């Protein structure tokens, strides 16, 4: 399959939006981060645990949802790999987060796959985030609390 030049530019812009999403999230720059999204964008978490919404819609809701992330996790996103797609506005990305859950000091090591759609201006319109909630729950659980399958997390609204 031959990729048209405009498709290559659109693909590069879409991938750049995802890379910027990760950079700004890790840096805790929520105000800059939310500008990467279209006004009616959707952030979706299919495996969200209790206490975290499965779907967040619109910039105001996105901002509110992510407002506590910088106080909850100190992370870097590494090993970013983009998978080629037929649609240049569709990005499939694999990456890892490595860092610390700030309330507990425990390590936060997460592996993610994200499926992201962008518009003609390379703004994110739909971000489908596949991450393991058990990793977050364990990282946010104080050392003195025994493991419990009914535990929820408090970093989302």
UniProtKB/TrEMBL annotation:
Top-rank taxon: Bacteria
Transmembrane segments: none
Taxon lineage: Bacteria, Bacillati, Actinomycetota, Actinomycetes, Kitasatosporales
SnoaL-like domain span: 18-126
Organism, as annotated: Streptomyces ziwulingensis
Protein name: Nuclear transport factor 2 family protein
Gene3D superfamilies referenced in this protein's UniProt entry, alphabetically: 3.10.450.50
Secretion signal span: none
């Amino acid at each position: 399959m031959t990729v048209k030049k405009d498709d290559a530019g659109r693909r590069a812009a879409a991938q750049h939006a995802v890379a910027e999403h990760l950079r700004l999230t890790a840096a805790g720059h929520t105000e800059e981060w939310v500008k990467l999204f279209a006004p009616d964008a959707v952030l979706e978490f299919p495996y969200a645990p209790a206490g975290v919404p499965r779907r967040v819609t619109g910039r105001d809701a996105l901002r509110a949802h992510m407002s506590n992330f910088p106080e909850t996790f100190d992370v870097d996103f590494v090993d970013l790999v983009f998978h080629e797609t037929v649609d240049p506005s569709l990005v499939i990305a694999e990456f890892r987060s490595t860092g610390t859950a700030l309330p507990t000091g425990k390590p936060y090591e997460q592996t993610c796959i994200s499926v992201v759609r962008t518009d003609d201006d390379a703004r994110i319109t739909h971000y489908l985030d596949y991450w393991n909630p058990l990793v977050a729950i364990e990282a946010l659980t104080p050392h003195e609390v025994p493991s419990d399958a009914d535990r929820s997390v408090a970093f989302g609204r």
